[in-house]
Amino acid sequence: MKSGLTLIIVLALIQITKQDCFRQSNSFLKRNHQNVLSYQAGALISSKLKNGFNNGNNGVCLRDNLYKILNDGLPYTACGKGQSISIRLLQKYLLNTLKIWLWDYGFSEGDRYYNITVYAILNQGKKNIYVSNSENPAISQMTIQFQEQYVDEFEVVNVDGNTFNQGLHIIKVEAYYKFY
Prior knowledge:
single chain, mainly beta, Jelly Rolls, elongated, Transmembrane protein, signal
């Protein structure tokens, strides 16, 4: 009798635990409104073999510190015209904001404007969340606000380089859920 009651209690606990695993709370998936595109959050650059990193690993746009001044300039993640920088998340998150810091100024050329398209991806399904144009140029620090959705990857496509050269240079990226 005692072993039967113990078995029922154990099975009930397993059932309760399993149900809680399937009922994921939105606050967990929103990551408590913290940046999910960082080393600590488990993000990685899935297109790393096609991208360049100025100053090696210091050039990865997932680092926590925004600026790390080096002897040969500012570190960044880069790709050529027609290529993209893809950043995969550890899991899917409910997000609505993406921030991108772009290399925006050189000593001789003035401000840079980039021609890019940004996609939010979930299970191989792409949703366009930003397209740069003359009315909404990609420059400097840009914040892209989009309808809240589950995301497991972001892709930034270099459509036609920038006003100075054909490269896309990302200093840092952040993604999170933001209340409006």
